[in-house]
Amino acid sequence: MASSPTVQHISDCFIKPLYYPEESKKPVYLSSWDLAMLSVQYIQKGLLFTKPSSFQLDPLLQNLKESLSITLIHFYPLAGRLSTLKQENPHIYTVFIDCINSPGARLIHANLDLTISDILNPKDVPLVVQSFFDHDRAINHDGHELSLLTIQVTELIDGVFIGCSINHAVADGSSFWHFFNSFSQVFKQKQSIINPISKLPIFNHWFPEGKGPFINLPYTHHDQFISRYEAPHMTERFFHFSTKSIKKLKAKANQECNTIKISSLQALSAHMWRSITRVRKFPCDQMTSCRMAINNRARLEPPLPEYYFGNCIQTVRGIASVSELLDNDLGWAAWKMHQAVVNHKDKEIREWVEKLESGMVYQLRGFFDPFSVMMGSSPRFDMYGNEFGLGKGVALRSGYAHKFDGKVTLYEGIEGDGSMDLEVCLLPDFMASLESDKEFMDSLSS
To answer: What is d(CA 40, CA 376) in angstroms, rounded to the nearest whole number?
Structure first.
């Protein structure tokens, strides 16, 4: 689609909370988990909707503006900007959210002269989808100048895409969908501003006992800890696993391990690990791994609230040589993933936070391991429940951010009931081999 139309920005504006709650006047200090994200990219996810027969764009935009302004009363940090506090003697360098001194969150109206079929029918995800989101190639540290949140409404010939981009130093996947779900709830229910959402976010960031409220980074300038990452040319495709396919993988993994403990997600992750490793044809002694994003909220002791807003994630991984992984069965690999998950407890989390407190800032190049598979996001998030007067979405898509060879992003399937859609990014030769791999393709249609 190199010669296809491009997204045209029609207008944009900034939206502030309808009113600022008293607590918004205080800075929101970032935790070690948040600060570690300063050099990675924004979260970019969104939904494609079919235009209703009576569709009118102007009322939709006005309702989105009003609903966003109400939602931001409770998610006021998303209307702010990052700010850095620096001092030489004694040394202070910390980044926080200034919730007040900001023009607000951004809302963009854009247009694209293509149809839903033009977006969904090609085997590869069209590059134009990246333009459905703000903050293309931006890193989180750019949130000093750029909005921490942007909603982009892109009108197609027969559809509307609503893309949401949130600074990843401010929110992880759980917090991203918490905001998006709340935004949709306000829009749908037209509730009063007194208590418009059912699940209030909690912004009291977690610090180990005796630490905080701010983390002093061992730097004097941001050039010492930020970098820009340009993804290689890749093929990006979606693969659908039906409820039946997922159940079959889970049952197979558990039977081969003589257990009932392996989850659907662990079995699917092991399946993708083995499938992608098989088509890459690395030497038998090459070490490989499968990483999974994991939510720490319930794993800390005491646990954090479910609606803790910020970053509270890590990755866990299974490790094996190519020969170990492929000579053994699915259950063997799935048990590796199961052990990685169940062994991730309070002690391991706190040990990792101690490392982060030394000033560790993740670099995207470090995530790009050509021998690994990375399973991101979660099919457990409520994605298709977000409606904005347009009915249920017909597809989920993401932007440019966090894409590398071996990245797999998990989404709930449109039919629900445990089905999943996988957004897979691979180098073109590897993708061609994956689509010719009988074992993998049979797993989709079972």
So the answer is: 14
Bridge partners (DSSP) of residue 338 are none
- Per-residue DSSP letter, 222: G
- What token pair was written down for 254? 């558990």
Q: pTM for the whole thing?
A: 0.96
State the pLDDT at residue 401.
Answer: 94
| Amino acid identity for residue 264 in this structure | S
In 3D space, the residue among 177, 209, 208, 182 whose CA is nearest the CA of residue 195 turns out to be: 182
> CA 291 to CA 399: how far, in whole Å?
21
Buried (b) or exposed (e) across 127-142, using 16+ Cβ within 10 A?
A: ebbbbbbbbeebbbbb
First to last CA, the chain: 32
Are the CB atoms for 149 and 23 separated by under 8 Å? no
DSSP code per residue over 131-170: GGSSSTT-BGGGGGTS-SEEEEEEE-SSEEEEEEEE-TTT
Residue 372 is encoded by which pair of tokens? 């690994």
Q: What is the radius of gyration, based on Cα positions, of the chain?
A: 22
Give which of 178, 195, 96, 164 is closest to 393, Cα–Cα: 164
pLDDT in tens, 59-93: 999 999 999 999 999 999 999 999 999 999 899 99
CA distances, 437 to each of 87, 296, 330, 415, 419 (Å):
57, 35, 16, 26, 21
- In whole angstroms, what is the distance from residue 241 CA to residue 417 CA? 11
Return d(Cα 421, Cα 48) in angstroms, integer: 15
